Amino acid sequence: MKTTFMGSVGMAVTLFTAGPMPAGPPPSGAPRLSRPKRSVRVIVKSVWLVCWSFAVLLSCWSNPGSILADEPARKAVPVAAREESLPLQQFRGLVEAGRRVRFDLLPGEKVQEVMVAKNDRVKKGTPLFRLSNEALVGALAGLLEKQTGYQEIKQQMSLLNLEIGHREEALKRLDAKIAAETKLAREVPGYVATRAEALREQRLGIESELDLLKARVPLLKEKSEQGREMEALLSREIALLKRQIQRLVVTAPFDGQVVYVNSQTERLPPGGPVCELWDDSFLLVRGQVMQHQLKHVTPGSKVLISLDFTQEKPVAGEVTSVEKAYERIQAGAYPTFQVLIKIAGKVDWLEPGMTVSVKFNCPPGQVRTRP
Q1: 3-state secondary structure of 298
Q2: Measured in whole angstroms, how far is the alpha carbon of residue 371 from the centre of its chain?
Q3: How many C-beta atoms lie closer than 10 Å to residue 265's C-beta?
Q4: Alpha-carbon torsion 119, 120, 124, 126, what sign?
Q5: The three-state (H, E, C) secondary structure of 178-245, written as one string
Q6: CB contact at 8 A, 196 and 181
Q7: Residue 92 dihedral angles phi and psi, to the nearest 5°
Q8: In sequence order, what are the residues at sequence separation of 6 or more whose Cβ sits closer than 8 angstroms to the Cβ of residue 251?
Q9: Is the separation of the CB atoms in 256 and 99 below 8 Å?
Q10: Any bridge partners for residue 246, and if so which?
Q11: Burial class of 60 by CB neighbour count within 10 A (0 to 12, 13 to 18, 19+)
């Protein structure tokens, strides 16, 4: 077929080059053609050559193997074998500490004292800094004052009950003395009960005081009942404020390293960072994958993490999350998706802030390493 194709092309070229009649006089006895007829003959041959060449090219395009019929036939490559030859999917990632916490100021708070320095290793519960919150202290003082007022009402009620009881005991004693004087005057001839009149006058005075005290009971009792309900509410609010004030001494929530301490805490506005703590007992890798790689990166997928230009053995990792919403690095850029990977175990040669290569350890039938 290759020889036939080349021969056809040669014949077409020959016919075209044979083209128009020579410019000299025609041989004797031959009919002489005029110049317009020779031009028409050239045009017809040219059109025929173009059409024939187009047909040959169309045939070759529809059956490309016919041109190379003299070459040995290629072997069909299975799909699995083609997948084996595909390059390994990978992306770049940034190593982060497993847990990170940053302490920011809340409205009304001020830093009173910082108790740690940058790069300090701290244990869980270690004091990091102390805050001063005048609003909390003022609110606590107001609640304590209200609580004191309700407690005073309770004390007044208690004292009033004591006074009433004291007056009632005094009346009982006077009644006993008056009864004794009356009995003596009745049983002893010539005995004049002069003390009985004085005792009765004294009893009238105590009864008047007792009536006044008992008149105060309903008012104080009502205030005491109201105060009992408000005091319970105040006690809860006071306990909450006291816990908040205790939390003004901020402690480390876990073992870790202090990576940042603000040196200008006196002028720190609300929302400003005071310090930052990292837990580097385990590490994470955060990276971005393209949309065509999403099918290979799912939660639970295994990956290999390595450092470029080093002899360290790659470590295993596991994909923990893949964000569905993509991010564009810049206008018109290819969409990328955030991936978070947890590194298995402690790795001495990895530190937060390093850039690593993450390779997909794809299962059989998917993208693999080139043989």
Answers
A1: coil
A2: 41
A3: 19
A4: negative
A5: HHHHHHHHHHCCCCCCHHHHHHHHHHHHHHHHHHHHHHHHHHHHHHHHHHHHHHHHHHHHHHHHHHHH
A6: yes
A7: -95, 145
A8: 124, 125, 126, 127, 128
A9: yes
A10: none
A11: middle
pLDDT of 276 strictly over 90: yes
Residue with tokens 């009881």: 165
Q: Is the pLDDT of residue 76 over 60?
A: no
Measured in whole angstroms, the distance separating CA 367 from the mean position of its chain's CA atoms is: 32
Q: Which amino acid is at 51?
A: C
Is the predicted pLDDT of residue 80 greater than 90, yes or no?
Answer: no
Chain-centre distance of CA 221, in angstroms?
54
The owner of tokens 């003299």 is 70
Cα separation, 214 vs 197, whole angstroms:
26
* CA–CA distance, 45 with 19 (Å, rounded to integer): 7
Shortest CA distance to 278 belongs to which of 198, 352, 167, 365?
A: 352
The pLDDT tens digits of the residues spanning 323-359 come to 866 655 555 567 788 899 998 777 888 888 899 988 8
- Residues for the chain: how many in total? 371
Do residues 80 and 54 make contact, with C-beta atoms less than 8 angstroms apart? no
Contact 108, 134 (CB under 8 A): yes
Residue type, 23: A
Confidence of residue 242 (pLDDT cuts 50, 70, 90): confident
